[in-house]
Amino acid sequence: MNYLALSLTSMLLGFVHGFDTDHVIDVTDFVSQDPRPLHAALFGARFGIGHTTTVLTVGLLVYTLKSVVPGLLENTFQLLSGVVLIALGVWGIHRRLIRRRTVSKHHHIHGAPGDFTAERTSVDNTVFRYGPIVTGMMTGMVGTAGVMLLGPVAAAPSAWWVVFFILLYGLGVIGAMCGYGFVASSFFRSGFFIGRRGSMVSKIVPVIPSVLSIALGSMWFFRIAVGLKNVLGAGL
User: Fold this and answer.
1) What contacts 158, CB < 8 A, 6 or more positions away?
2) Nearest CA-CA partner of 55 in 77, 29, 30
């Protein structure tokens, strides 16, 4: 067994998985509201850590019990992920369109070009700190079943190798999201926004990630809700 090849494959698969649509939308929503490079990279890193924590915990449990992730449990977590995405989008729009102060005042306080939202409240600070971790954990649960079928994990000869391969997979996700957050921050700090402060463009474009978050969350919620209703109804 070529462990080096399996290790590199695990990390590469994690890196590619990191750019899944829901991951990108989640991280972009945070970055668009605080595009400072270090903060943006940390948003991505925390998302990846949350994602990896869930995949590792559930994956190891599944391996130990020689079982599979129950479809009902996975669907329930995807339903909750939809709720979290909707809540995240609503929160972002609320900050931008309802509690936004003047651009000059906000820029004076935070010094973050491209960040045109309201001053932070204690709730905002909590969401910025733990939101990426929570959303990462939710999406991690949704994707655990797929991770357990990956070549490196499926070929692991022991629980320790399962842990090792999943950690490498998680490292790939973390690297992808951290790098994406940094690059996305450059866009929201670019002259495209700095030169258009107060314009319609500077107000609408940063809200798009929040709108997409609500749209994706709603799609997940209703799709899984209908599926769960059918499953539970069939069992009655």
Assistant:
1) none
2) 77
Question: pLDDT by residue for the chain (236 residues), tens digit each?
Answer: 678 888 898 899 899 999 998 899 999 999 988 889 999 999 999 999 999 998 898 888 878 877 666 666 777 778 888 888 999 999 888 887 765 554 444 444 444 444 445 567 777 888 889 999 999 998 887 766 666 666 677 777 888 888 998 999 999 999 999 999 999 998 888 755 555 555 566 667 778 889 999 999 998 888 877 766 665 565 54
Integer Cα distance of 120 and 128 in angstroms: 10
Cα separation, 72 vs 55, whole angstroms: 17
Domain ranges of the chain: 3-231
Are the CB atoms for 79 and 68 separated by under 8 Å?
no
Q: What is the pTM of this model?
A: 0.81
- In the DSSP assignment, the letter for residue 119 is P
CA torsion through residues 143, 147, 149, 150, sign: positive
Measured distance between the N- and C-terminal CA atoms of the chain, rounded to whole angstroms: 48
In 3D space, the residue among 67, 69, 63, 57 whose CA is nearest the CA of residue 159 turns out to be 63
Residues sharing a CB contact under 8 Å with residue 48, sequence separation 6 or more, in sequence order: 18, 136, 170, 173, 174, 175, 176, 177, 178
